[in-house]
Amino acid sequence: MKIKCFWSNTDEKNEFMNRILEKLKRKYHKRESIINVLKSEQYNNDVVNVHRYDLTNAGDFYCAPHHYFDELKGKYLDIFDYKSDEIEVRKNWIEQISNNALIIGGGGLLNHHAFNKQMRLFEKLNIKGKKTVVWGIGHNKNRWPDFEKYNVNPSKFGLFGTRDYSVANEWLPCVSCLHPMFDKKYIIENEIGVVFHKKNINKLEVISKFNKFPSIYNSSNFEEIIKFIGSCDTLLTDSYHGMYWGLLLNKKVLHFSESSKFHDYKYPITSASIYNYKAKISSLKPLEGVLEEAREINNNFAQKAFDYLEIT
What is d(CA 131, CA 289) in angstroms, rounded to the nearest whole number? Predict the structure, then answer.
């Protein structure tokens, strides 16, 4: 009997082994970083804003308060640096977390495997006197019915404001509402436009369903995304921030995603699949006052957070 080889050639075998080794190395780096933080003395000397600092995802990048308040300018840290291959990057992450009070967020940092270890770490630092402020983060499960409760205890954080409405200790929509691009006026050029999440770049089945409409990816330049949304009367999207920014710009919005993060905004947003969205477009209506409400809530929360963190 012949046994079929798993790899068709040596290159495939080497590529597979390299992926395994990289995965094991990242796992070791994660564990090492977390242990070192937990072993370290904890201080609140200054403040650092921890979030997914991703230049290829406009939502992840601009959902953090350090962009919008002078008191926080330049005080940021990528939540993924704890697993970096570069020892100096990991060392800086450990030192920044250990020496400073933490503003955590925004973005979908709750109930997502990529951020579970970091969020559990921040939760544990409560017993060491760490000051923590959760700013506009939310749950991020693949499917809405799968969500039951947060994977951390909100009471273990100093302030806990989330973009999720039904489960929020304090409802806090994404701070990106403070960006001045939302103050500009835009001319409607497209009846319908699509904002795709960058994960769909190679998903032809998804893209082909909307190929009649102008579109943009959330990996594009932020200003270009906002201009594009501004040019549309109706917005279709599977990007959370695409949805949110459409609401801020008073657009008719429909999302085609099953992720839990889309289903817990304060106001119900029409959902559909890539197969039945056309039947729902005619019933869409814009929401009034979303921008003004989000800005007021964030500015009020900022005052509370800065008082708690003793930032002057």
Answer: 33
Give the residue carrying structure tokens 């949805």: 243
Express as a percent the part of the chain with pLDDT over 70: 96
Cα 115 to Cα 111: distance, rounded to the nearest angstrom: 8
Q: Are 69 and 97 in contact (CB under 8 A)?
A: no
Q: What are phi and psi of 78, to 5 degrees?
A: -75, 125
pLDDT at 4 over 80: no
Quick check: helix, strand or coil at residue 33? helix
Q: How far apart are CA 125 and CA 98, in angstroms?
A: 9
- Which residues, including other chains, have CB under 8 Å from residue 205's CB and lie 6 or more apart? 274
> What is the CB-side half-sphere exposure of residue 220 using CA atoms within 13 A?
19
For domain 180-288, the CATH class is alpha beta
Two structure tokens written together for 64: 């953090």
In sign, the C-alpha dihedral spanning 124, 84, 21, 199 is positive
pTM: 0.92
Give Cβ neighbours of residue 46 (< 8 Å, ≥ 6 apart): 75, 99, 100, 101
Q: SS3 for 237? A: strand
Q: Tell me the backbone φ, ψ of residue 110, rounded to 5 degrees.
A: -100, 140
